[in-house]
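fyi for ur records
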Amino acid sequence: MARPARTKSTPARGPARKKIARAHEKAPAKARSSAKAASIGSRMTASPITIPLDSDLGNAIALMEEHGIRHLPVLDEGRLVGIVSERDLSIIESLVPDEWERIVVAEAMTPSPYAVAASTPISEVAKTMAERKYGCVVVTGPRGALLGLFTTTDALRMLAETKTARSVGQVVRAKTT
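which gave:
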């Protein structure tokens, strides 16, 4: 007698059932380990373009345009002291349209930006960014040295990759059942 075709509502039997059970047992452990391994340091933009504290806003705008970026860490003698964003510059330009080019970065920057260690979990950083409406996070080393930036663009890129990976996984699973 021929075995009935397996449908979604028909439970797997024999070796197939054992294979599915093993996959379910392993999946949560893999998900937990990958979530723990997903640190901000693995997804940041390393070695970001920076600007000196005493530079003028014209230089900041030129750097942003040249490199297609929206955030510049501000350094004073190699030490992180703030961050200036494209939004900051737009606001200043609209408030003092005739004088903005004479203003220095020190006057426009956000001092003491939100900074995290490279080992900080992405989920923790993303939650804080969403709650506080931050556009970027500065990633620092053990002694506060600038390592990189993690921006909303990096977060969205990661989300798109995750969504794509899940979609591919669903297609592969559908073809194998």
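Confidence is low (pLDDT under 50) at residues 1-12, 16-36. thats all i got for now
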